[in-house]
Amino acid sequence: MQMTKKWNEFFLNWLIKISGYSAIIFVILIFYFLLREGLPAIGEVSISNLFSVRWYPIEDYFGLLPLIAGSIIVTIGAALFAIPIGLCAAIFISEVSPRWARDILKPLVEVLGGIPSVVLGFIGILILAPYLRQLLDLPTGLSALAGSILLGGLAIPTIVSVAEDALDSVPRSYRDGALALGATEWQTIWRVTFPAARSGVLTAIMLGIGRAIGETMAVMMVTGNAAVLPIKLNSLFLPVRTMTATIAAEMGEVAKDSTHYHVLFLIGVLLFVISLGINIAASTTMFQQRKRAERILS
Amino acid sequence: MINGFKEIYKNPNSSTSRKIKQKFGFSLIGFATLITVIPIIAIVLYIFIKGISAISWDFLTTFPTDGVKAGGIYPAIVGTIYLTIFTAIFSVPLGIGAAIYLSEYAPDNRWTRAIRIAIINLAGIPSVVYGLFGLGMFVIFFKLGTSILAGSITLSIMTLPVIISTAEEALRAVPQSFRVISISVGATRWQTIRRIVLPQSLPGIMTGVILGLERAVGETAPILFTAAVFFLPRLPSSPLDPTMALPYHLYVISTQVPGMPVEIQYGTALVLILFVLSLNLIASIIRSRARAHRQW
Predict the structure, then answer these.
(1) pLDDT of A226 over the 80 cut
(2) Partner-chain contact A114 B215, CB within 8 Å
């Protein structure tokens, strides 16, 4: 009896330890299987072809530049309005609004984070794109701009939620000190609270941008999916195609182990590496912030 | 910080102009909050108004007909429920196990830090990359084919970070003294976790599980190449069958089917949103009730 009990406990402890390490195992597995299917592309397609400006897989043109540029332009467009709006909303919710309003506003913003991106894409097609076409007199509303607006909407909840947490964790005494010196609340926010929370705010911005780069469905549905290099000034108003949308739109139609199939996995490797970079950068600033907070409090 | 204080001390502007500035500033960021919140309410209300007329008992319980341009969305609803249940079967034990490890066992060393970074990275990997991974590992390497099983394992890995971090937070919230007392009366570490820590933190863990599954319900990209098909004449009969699913169905009928009636599109969007919002609602009810009944 005592033996089996001990053995059970030993067994359970091991199970728990393995599930603890599962996250690391999965990250490695994901990277391995992406490389396994994606690396052959480098042997099959010349480097100059991969870095050309033409994506036309049927005739073996696998230029990734238009797709990378498409992702960048849509993400920059999204960041341009999601960051200021998101940060202002976070400040309002954390510093200005009364307790009861905060208890309504924060969950509400998190609900937006939960709305499936395919639903936003659907609204984008039916309402946003036709509206943009009329408003700006464009040939089609399905453009980088429509993608940016939707992506911004998807990034805002992440930015608000993380930035609000960061502002909220600034010690009360900082604010009291500034107010006691005669600063207005507005001055306290911008010169004391906000700078004190800056590494958390930076994390919020990075996670928001990460969300925008990786978003697939909404972008695929509203950007018009034209794989052209967006170099002209007006490219924000023209159709583009992002890396994520290319994978989602074309993977269903390619034969397994064809060159096209391998190149799509290679794009996946690229996306994986980008998100890894952003998240490691974001988490190091997060750890630094925690350490500094511990130093101040001790 | 110090600079902030100095500046305030050096430039005490006249108090009226500072107050006007503050009023202006507050209205500006209040406006930013409004344009964050109003579109959410507007989108949900709009889909509700446009979609409610399409929803009937028949719409929810019959198969699509006429190349999905008429009839109901029954197989898509059932498919989403199947996917959610199988996702829960994989992700709940694993996620809670990982949370227990991090909160009760893990030493504070570089391995634990590596686990935390891995979790943050799992949360940030684009959903379509999960789809590629599921295709490469489960559909092709393990030869599961396009199936509920392949899709839900893929989804469960994607939901792990949400479940782990919320559950860990709930476990950590149980006061240390509870554990000390349990160990001091002779309970083993596992008995303490099983009888004391887990029951106390159950509402928080449930919240995490539901929030994770909410994400799985709405995702399209991970099941694009691993589980979902456009149309099935009958329900899937085993976990190795492909399935229809609500988000994928909405994607297909709003982009790939010319002449699709708008009411069916709005109806499908509404059913999907109701799924997600009701999970969200359940999670917040559990959370607020647990806060009210907490024993410490």
Answers:
(1) no
(2) yes
